[in-house]
Write a structure and sequence with these properties.
It is a single chain. By secondary structure, this protein is an alpha+beta fold. A six-stranded antiparallel beta sheet has the order 22-23-21-20-19-24. Strand 10, helix 7 and strand 11 form a beta-alpha-beta unit. The longest helix has 20 residues.
């Protein structure tokens, strides 16, 4: 039996690898209305169907004995359907001229280069240049580039060398500090290996990494998605101040870009801008993984926060965005270690394409200066995939849609919307350059009648990929339509006063302002606090320790002033700083404070320099003892919990403990997250800032629980959830509290899950005294 299984597995492997495919990226670079010779790998004699972007068959045939096929096709996206396998083709004219700086693409090609060599970089650059995309965002791991102090990894500059002869430039983003940046006693132990701690050594690192790369750079982005990390804003701001000052010192001309902030929420962004982020950077970056309808709101939130700074109109770049496609429950153990689909299903692909181009339209209309989808090269994240190319490097519908949007909207400015869109259209945005206008129309699902724009003076109409369908029905056109017109001839139908247009004016009225970093960077000893969130330190401190690093070439005076909230008092100061901090020197001091008389639940502490040489630090401490306590009564009864586990779970009452018990057996190590349906609206979590509970878990071995989380489920039936970690339980009763992030509280919450994972085949834990906590009014 084992031999038969082995033979079957070998045959399956051969079949999977024998599927016809083109070399990486080649299917995305076909010339329109010219004969294109396609040479397939493993394709000799394979039968195919040629379909258009809507899945309509255009022709059929077979590859020749050498696996070749010659096609002459008009502009558009096509799919070759082989038995059990599909290959995408995008046919278009090559881009001519300089690229429009708005259009970008995340490639992360440097990660591929280390495994596959320089050829993959060259192919990606050819693809971007041909499409008219001039910016590529490329992740660089600082710990990989400089694994030892002052030692650059050989070959780490390959991508920058390749772009030199192309119009493509790299948005260089550096993250993940190497372990030598940390004090030995803190390395890895507290998970602090993300941020640099020794700021005085930054200058050596930046001189090693940046000046020779600068000619190939369009900007330098410092850190990534910091609002997704359990670090308050001051941690990132200290690093950014140091980097911004040193960028001037080493004469880096490229703009400094903020971290890409996920979930543009006013509270999260405000924690950074109130402490001076805008003044340290040239560009404000967002990551928007939301429906297109939320794009304008996301930009408006950023502008609302920036309005309180000295740079209300500073450039906005969206440095990640996109719409993932389902990986599906597909097992493919032979395809490069990736389980799941290696190519999107047509419906998923089209939904991704529509979402991406609509987001690009709206971002451009709102005055966003750069738009970078995530990402060109296939990337798997949990149960979904990203990729405008599939795993084999074949273009998908979302690539064709984005490439054509680049082609037809480059150089054009948003001027408004049609006051009365054609029948069945939901929106019609107008972009123009002189007398050349494009109407970008969206037709929502369910509209099946003919699309009628005969009252408009249209010169040409095409669908999402630039192709022209055979009929006028919505089913043939799909959800996206482009109409090409004369600006003057449609002026009477254009409504100019729109929310997007108002945001565009803010961006266009901005005049560049220089950065104003401080020569002395102040750091708070964040590593001394185990319990942190992306907004707060969860603690009532008795001692505050700060560090000053003078990055200038001369000694500078610093006169620190500590400002405490009402009711707080300074008990003592270790010793005053000297009159001058010498160049290249780091000094540390601490204050002993008493905050027991403070009434505020969120306690704001500011350290500033009266001399103006050291960067200010703003800290927010959350005092959990002053929060209200409201029992989640229904959660104390076993009947109100539902089974949710990767094994066989039983739920029981434990009256003697006043608890509910959960026992699960697994066929292999798994997880158990029993589920409680909130009784809404009485048990709404809308204003809840924290949830606490008592938990104990039986130990079946000495192994640790690999993860323990509280999950907040945002719908009644699907599996859309946010999660927050809590410290693993012990065999004895212990209290746990999780802070509910603003990004979670802003969404409806219908279900609550509390549980953990295990490396064992059995799990048993108990919960009691689940409480909801709010800030007192």
């Amino acid at each position: 039996m084992k031999i038969h299984c082995l033979i079957l597995a070998m045959l399956l492997t051969v079949c999977l690898h024998a599927a016809p495919h083109l070399p990486f990226g080649e299917g995305a670079m076909l010339e329109a209305d010219r004969e294109n010779l396609l040479r397939f790998v493993d394709g000799a004699g394979a039968a195919y169907r040629l379909c258009d972007i809507m899945g309509r068959q255009l022709s059929s045939g077979a590859l020749n004995g050498a696996g070749e096929l010659t096609l002459k096709l008009p502009q558009g996206f096509y799919e070759l359907e082989f038995p059990g396998h599909r290959v995408g083709l995008y046919v278009s004219p090559a881009w001519q001229g300089a690229p429009d700086p708005f259009w970008g693409m995340q490639t992360d090609v440097s990660r591929r280069e280390r495994k596959e060599g320089m050829a993959v970089i060259e192919q990606v650059l050819n693809l971007l240049e041909r499409t008219g995309i001039g910016t590529m965002r490329d992740y660089r791991s600082w710990k990989d580039d400089e694994p030892q102090p002052g030692k650059l990894r050989p070959g780490s500059d390959s991508t920058f060398q390749q772009v030199a002869s192309t119009p493509v430039r790299i948005l260089h983003y550096l993250a993940d500090a190497p372990s030598w940046q940390l004090r030995p006693e803190n390395q890895q132990a507290k998970g602090e290996a993300i941020y640099p701690r020794h700021l005085l050594s930054l200058e050596r690192s930046l001189r090693l990494l940046l000046p020779h790369r600068a000619p190939g750079m369009v900007g330098w982005q410092i850190e990534n998605e910091t609002t997704n990390r359990p670090y308050p804003p001051d941690v990132t701001l200290s690093e950014i101040n140091a980097c911004s000052f040193l960028a001037d010192k080493i004469d880096l001309k490229q703009p400094i870009v903020t971290p890409g902030f996920a979930r543009p929420l006013a509270d999260e962004l405000g924690g950074y801008t109130e402490a001076g982020l805008a003044e340290l950077c040239d560009v404000f970056a967002l990551h928007v993984y939301l429906p297109p309808e939320k794009m304008c709101d996301s930009v408006a939130t950023a502008r609302q926060v920036l309005a309180k700074t000295s740079k209300p109109g500073m450039p906005l770049w969206i440095t990640e965005t996109g719409y993932a496609w389902s990986a599906g429950n597909v097992k493919n153990p032979t395809f490069r270690g990736v389980d799941g689909r290696k190519r999107a299903l047509p419906a998923d692909d089209m939904e991704s394409a529509v979402s991406l181009v609509r987001s690009a339209w709206i971002a451009r209309a709102c005055g966003v200066a750069k738009f970078i989808p995530f990402r060109l090269i296939f990337c798997q994240e949990y149960s979904v995939n990203f990729g405008l190319l599939d795993l084999d490097g074949s273009p998908q519908r979302n690539f064709a849609a984005y490439a054509f949007a680049v082609q037809c909207l480059s150089g054009k400015r948003y001027i408004g919307e049609l006051a009365a869109p054609p029948r069945n259209w939901e929106s019609a945005m107008v972009f123009a350059n002189g007398d050349s206008a494009v109407i970008a129309g969206y037709v929502p699902s369910g509209k099946t009648g003919p699309l009628d724009w005969k009252n408009l003076p249209v010169k040409e109409a095409v669908r999402i990929d630039g192709s022209i369908p055979g009929s006028g029905s919505a089913a043939e056109w799909g959800k996206i339509v482009y109409l090409f017109c004369s600006t003057a001839e449609i002026e009477q139908w254009i409504h100019h006063d729109t929310p997007e247009g108002n945001l565009l004016k803010i961006a266009e009225n901005y005049r560049e302002q220089p950065r104003t970093p401080f020569p002395v960077t102040t750091q708070f000893s964040y590593w001394q606090y185990d319990w942190k969130t992306n907004l707060y330190y969860v603690d009532t401190p008795e001692k505050l320790e700060f560090h000053w690093s003078n990055l200038a070439d001369r000694a500078l005076p610093v006169e620190p002033e500590l400002l405490l909230p009402e009711g707080g008092r300074i008990v003592s100061v270790a010793e005053p700083l000297p009159d001058l901090i010498p160049a290249g020197t780091k000094l540390s001091r601490s204050w002993t404070v008493d905050l027991t008389q403070c009434r505020d639940t969120i306690r704001r502490i500011v350290l500033r320099d009266r001399r103006g040489n050291a960067s200010p630090v703003t800290l927010r401490f959350l005092d959990t003892t002053s929060l209200t306590r409201e029992p989640l009564v229904g959660a104390g009864e076993a009947k109100n919990w539902r089974v949710n586990a990767g094994g066989k779970m039983t739920i029981r009452s434990v009256p003697v403990e006043g608890a509910v018990g959960f026992h699960t057996r697994f066929s292999s190590p798994g997880w158990a997250y029993p589920e409680y349906f909130l009784n809404l609206p009485e048990e709404s979590l809308q204003d809840v800032i924290a949830i606490s509970f008592e938990i104990r878990a039986k130990k079946f071995s000495d192994r640790r629980y690999p993860y323990s989380k509280v999950l907040f489920v945002h719908d009644r039936s699907k599996n859309d959830f946010s999660q927050v970690n809590y410290p693993p339980p012990t065999p004895e009763w212990s209290s746990r509290m999780v802070i509910v992030p603003e990004s979670v509280r802003m969404r409806p919450i219908y279900r609550l899950r509390i549980g953990l994972g295990t490396a064992e085949n059995e799990m048993d834990f108990q919960l009691r005294n689940i409480r909801l906590h709010r800030i007192p009014r």
